[in-house]
Amino acid sequence: MSLITVERIKLFSTRSPWWCMIVAAVLSIGLAALATGFASGPDELRVTPAMTQFGVGLGQMVIMVMAALAVTTEYRFGTIRTSFQAVPQRVALLLNKTIVVATLAAVVGLVASWGSWVVGSLLASGADMKIDTAAEWRLMFGQGLVYGLAAIFAVAVGILIRQSAGAIAILILWPLLVESLLPLIPKIGDDLQKWTPFTNANQFLNGGQDMGLAGADAAGASTALSPWWALAYFAAWSIGILVIALITASKRDA
Question: What is the distance between the alpha carbons of residues 152 and 103, in angstroms, rounded to a whole number?
Answer without folding.
Answer: 10
